Amino acid sequence: MDHLDDNELLEMFNAGNPDYAFNLLMRKYQKSIYWHVRRLLIDHEDSNDVVQNVFLKVWQNIRHFRGDSKIYTWLYRIATNEALSFLKKKQRRFFVPLVDVEAMLSEKLETDQYFKGDEVQKKLQKAILKLPEKQRIIFNLRYYDEMKYEDMSEILGTSTGALKASYHIAVKKVEEFLING
Amino acid sequence: MEKEKPDILKRELLDKAPGISKASKDNPFEVPDDYFSRLPDKIAELKNSSVRKSHHTVFGYSTQKIMAYAAALAVMVAFGLTFLFLIQKDDVNDLAGIDEEYLESYFSYLADYDEAHYYEILISEESNMLKYIDGYTDISMWTEDADDDPFLDYILEYMDTYQYLPEDLEYIIDLD
């Protein structure tokens, strides 16, 4: 059953077995969604809260999913929105500019018991955190998830040309930070 | 999910980013033991409790959803009438006519609603009207220069322009 493709899972939802189909969907995508959120939020507890919300919203809304996009790009879109919304709430709660929230996340890397990367990886994460929000998402999706631009376009609602340009700029900025930062 | 071909990814990085290419692509983050084996059960538990909470319906629609629609409509009408009134007055200083009490009641009104229901409306009905509240971030609204919530920006700009800062700013802005 783990090998069911997304269309078969959707059929199962519509064929009167939604709980089972949802369980399979969660098990299929929980890791990729979690890691996507975790790279944006850094903190495990925050990421855990957001991922739970993401799947609750998937459950609440999947009956309206029309199949205009792939189901996994829809999941990523919800996850991205939820993670960004979480960051904005954090920013407002503490009355700090977004750039300072990202500085806080950068500091979190130093003390996070669940970060096991070496110094180069830590520096890479800090460089990524210095990118503007949208470039950061684009960099993560392309570099870590190795996602195709066409799928990123479905998630972010941005043309593939603009995504390629943004990724190119993000790579240059991260590289600059790694060498001179 | 079909991944990009490795040679394409490599070509994108190798020439222009030798520093990044040197970094290990292994995942540097960890999770607590058994996290992924427990997560689906935790979500299923939350899902079942949320189903129990929202079983009240009127003509097949969730009462909370109806309330959220009503709230959205009320907010749109209130803002529409206010702006119409201000434009007709043709005097920019009269923007100060949106008083503190009005703003506070507006925000506390919004704070009574569950964020999940805004989201449900946004996803299922493709409504645009609630994008401007609750800190909701719709990626399709992004432009190169403006990443922020335009509604909140408007409120903050208004307060800044007219030197009008409600006493309990945190209460007004933090809708949690």
Q: Can you tell me the overall shape of chain B?
A: flat
CATH superfamily of the largest domain in chain A: RNA polymerase sigma factor, region 2, helix turn helix motif
Low-confidence stretches of chain B: 91-98, 116-147, 162-176
Question: How many runs of DSSP E, i.e. beta strands of chain A?
Answer: 0
Chains forming the largest contact: A-B, 70 and 52 residues
Strand order, largest beta sheet of chain B: 1-2
CATH topology of the largest domain in chain A: Rna Polymerase Sigma Factor, Chain: A
Tell me the name of the CATH class of the largest domain in chain A.
Mainly Alpha
Q: Structural class of the secondary elements of chain A?
A: mainly alpha
Total number of strands of chain B? 2
Structural class of chain B: mainly alpha
Mean pLDDT of chain A, nearest integer? Answer: 90
How is the biggest beta sheet of chain B arranged?
2 strands, antiparallel
Distance between the termini of chain A: 48 Å
How many discrete structural domains of chain A?
2
Q: Supply Rg of chain A.
A: 17 Å
Report the order of strands and helices of chain B.
Answer: HHHEEHHHHH
Helix and strand run of chain A: HHHHHHHHH
The shape of chain A, in one word, is globular
- On the 0 to 100 scale, the average pLDDT of chain B is 62
